User: Fold these one by one.
Assistant:
Number 1:
Amino acid sequence: MGDSLTCVDLFCGAGGLSLGMQRAGFEILAATDVHKTAAKTYEENIGQKCVTDDIRDLSPKEFFERGDFGPDEVDVVVGGPPCKGFSTAGPFDVDDPRNDLFRQYLEIVEEIQPDAILMENVEGILSMHDGAFKNQILEHTDTLGYNTDYMKLNAANYGVPQLRERVFFIGYQNGRQISRPEQSHTGSKQKRVTEYDCGDDLKQYVTTKSAVHDLAFLGVGEESSKYERDPETDYQERMRGNHSKLYNHKAPNHSERIQERFAKFEPGESVDDVESRLGSNEIKTKKHTIQKWDPETPTNTITTLPEDFIHYEQDRIPTVRELARIQSFPDWFRFKGPRTTGGQRRSTALPQYSQVGNAVPPLLAEALGKEIRATLLGEQRVVQS
């Protein structure tokens, strides 16, 4: 095996996982996703073909032909098959036709027989069907010749300003041992970062303010294509790079009523916190997942719903660019398609906010990619306990 390694990305979305693999030294040969707008984002930023189709209607052979690559060219298959449609009732079987997305992922793996596989999903996948889902994945990949295990990783431990926990299944052929990516940051989920002593070996968690404060000049209903504040932290400088133009930085035009509601929140407070402090009738909303960012901590896991968060300095929800910063997408990465959509349009026109929220943070993906690369090239480091 040479130093040049390749991968394909299934269920690629906007390309967070692919971007991280690229930065870890992998060449992306092709990708596939069902959403046309996400595919446009992917192709513009990753610079590689995204086969846009429902993977259940896409045979491995057709994927190879439309992606213009051969199965023998691929070293690693990565991806995150969605599991939202699975029932939690009754026994789970990965070979059940109803579980087509995972089956299709594994069929493509079986056809390609890469040296390594990487599968990302939410933490709940471990407890689904009392662990039967997890066990089926491990057993099925074992029959394909892979030594597979899983690990839970928090993105904040890898320099992402977000307490985002995800599960990663990693498998290798030829009995290679599975190892965790080396952690670079640490902190406490209970304390503000400024109050936490992390020692000499690791950096402190990246806070929300240190990630996005140079973008906080935008008020309600405003937008900007240029920076109006200088970078203040290493993270901000890293996200900017040498880029001078600002993309996807447009704030919603909230009504005065909404702005007044947002102004009642203190940093870090949820709806329940505000109602407990001011009274149960103060917020007047049925949505109780709203939280105001605490500038001195990483954010909680961002979702596909931007209205889950309120900016710590402005009485508005975050912009697409600010959420992209929280996910560790660099500022040159431009999201395509509508900012928001609703109803049936979401099935094809995945909005920018959802593209950001669904993604694997590129900095976390890069750490994983470097670990996989080191293992495949015989430079294995920390063995998973």
Note: The longest strand covers residues 26-33.
Number 2:
Amino acid sequence: MTEKSSPSDTWPPAHILPTLRKKPSQSRSRAAVDAVAEACQRILEESGEDGLTVARISEISGVAVGSIYQYFPNKDAIVALLYERILDEESQKLLLMRETLVGLSLAHSLRIILANIIRVEVRLFHLCQAFHLRYHEAFHLGMWRGPYKTASEFIDATWLPLLRMYEHEIDVPDPELAAYLLGKGLRGLIRSVLEDVPDKLESQAFLNSLVAMALGCLQISTKKD
């Protein structure tokens, strides 16, 4: 895997996910790659990272070690494919979730949004902790497969319109700054919790704190929800 440098605000981020050596073109090769990914997930869920070896993946999937290396340069590339598929699935759920926000108060919407971000982070983190921390910047659910080249583009297209929808509830002199703090600041805080106190990530206290911080940025009382 090679890593290329780029400004911290650009997308894709500096730490690019490892990829397949080549894409399977025939049904048989696609089935083999699918079997490898499924075996990887099974091993991680049952034995954790310590049990994940190419030999074990070969045993579970029925795909020869040599054939695995035809498509994957290393274990990280196998895990990356698994994460990509999970993020594709979660992206579809995100689209459906956004539809449920219509008619809700801003405080309620923020709680749903932040709870979903945490849920996805927890899912990915528990699957393979070291891998997740190593490539965390690539796992931005909102930007996944999206048209955004920078985090600022994503924030302007998502968080800022959300705040404008609720402008009757908030009182901020600089909506663009508020959107930036919500879109980038809270994500950075979640990353810090992952690194420093991951056991707190799923606590109700952490979610409550995130919601309170978001409402504080918008100068809105939590009593309105």
Note: The CA atoms of residues 88 and 145 lie 8 Å apart.
Number 3:
Amino acid sequence: MAPTLTASSGRAYPSHYADVHALVYRDGDLLMSLRRDQPVYPRVFQVPAGLMERGEPATVAACRELREETGLIADPADLRLVHLMHHVSPYGRNARLAMFFEAGRWGGDLVNAEPEKCEGWHWHNIDAVPEPLPAYLRTALQHIRHGIPYSEFAWEPPSATARPTDG
């Protein structure tokens, strides 16, 4: 599980990674790429995504990731949060907050700006996205399609003896 931070009260609080996902559509198709053999999520389809950097607002991070990976440009004001997922990564079991933003407007020329990481960007019909997908992404896309704004994924169920604590 993720490392913990300790408050001045001595109480331990979990730390989380925060990542952003840019959902870019064209005529009902979603922009996706097949990842190369990477240490994390090898040989699966993914949308433009990445970790936020220190001091960076989420919408700015999503626009940066979109530009860095695809060459496409979006204004943070043109992004709309469509889903928030609190999940656990299968890589290191890190707790993560994943934000999924839909780009209402975007421009630029589509390029494979990180060919060492992905095989190229292609448009896929949202009703028939390619497989394989990371399980968390498949779940998030289903929730987005059904208008569900929040989900939790891959958390171990609480033990039967666990009791709620005061916040």
Note: The longest helix spans residues 58-70.
